[in-house]
């Protein structure tokens, strides 16, 4: 079973997510939290596989709570997917930098939410349609001169190629078509690249791709 913690200050939102997720044969809601402080405490108490974390919450917001969760080595197995009302949320960039594995708008279709939970727990990153491109454009806008790319030296030529494709927002299936390999092979390359670079998940590969200079502003095709 995939165990999920719901963190949102709106009772009705939590109730709706709970009803949807508990109806799935492989997913259960392990607990709920109404603010970031409670979310961190519940994560430590319940050790869920995934947290659906609202960004805007009282006391401690979702961004700060995510940093505390992803920064705690004892909680390394817990994934966080951020929730917001707007795709153009100003915190998208910082949420991914803080270690979130995905980003969804609250009006996401039910089947997409369920797919997101399964995908993130399986090791993939998940961003709402439209958010990936905006995130990448934000990286491009903020990009500075890249730092020395020490970690890239450990990658094979194919792994560097795959990382660059991840950096421009392609999914495993799109990478597979681009390189004429199977989706499983593409996923394997992505996974090996994350291990070699110490990336928490696919989302952070985008960060590293830009910060290392492997992908530069304007390479959004």
From TrEMBL:
SMART domains: HTH_LUXR (SM00421), REC (SM00448). Keywords: DNA-binding, Phosphoprotein, Transcription, Transcription regulation. Residues 148-213 form the HTH luxR-type domain. The modification 4-aspartylphosphate is found at residue 54. Residues 3-121 form the Response regulatory domain. PANTHER family: TRANSCRIPTIONAL REGULATORY PROTEIN NARL-RELATED, TWO-COMPONENT RESPONSE REGULATOR. This is Response regulator transcription factor. It comes from Streptomyces albiaxialis.
């Amino acid at each position: 079973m995939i165990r999920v913690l719901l963190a949102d200050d709106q009772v009705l939102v939590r109730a709706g997510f709970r009803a949807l997720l508990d109806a799935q044969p492989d997913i259960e809601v392990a607990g709920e939290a109404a603010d970031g402080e409670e979310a961190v405490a519940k994560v430590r108490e319940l050790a869920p596989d995934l947290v659906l974390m609202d960004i805007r919450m009282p006391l401690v917001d979702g961004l700060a709570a995510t940093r505390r969760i992803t920064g705690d080595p004892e909680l390394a197995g817990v994934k966080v997917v951020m929730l917001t009302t707007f795709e153009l949320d100003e915190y998208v960039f910082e949420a991914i930098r803080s270690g979130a594995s995905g980003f969804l708008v609250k009006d996401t279709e039910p089947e997409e939410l369920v797919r997101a939970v399964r995908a993130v727990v399986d090791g993939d990153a998940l961003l709402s349609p439209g958010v990936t491109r905006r995130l990448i454009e934000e990286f491009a806008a903020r990009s500075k001169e890249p730092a020395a790319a020490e970690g890239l030296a450990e990658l094979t030529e194919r792994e560097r190629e795959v990382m660059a494709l991840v950096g421009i927002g392609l999914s495993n299936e799109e990478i597979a078509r681009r390189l004429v390999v199977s989706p499983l092979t593409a996923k394997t390359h992505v996974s090996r690249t994350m291990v070699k670079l110490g990336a928490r998940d696919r989302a952070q590969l985008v960060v590293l791709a830009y910060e290392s200079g492997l992908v530069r502003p304007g390479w959004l095709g």
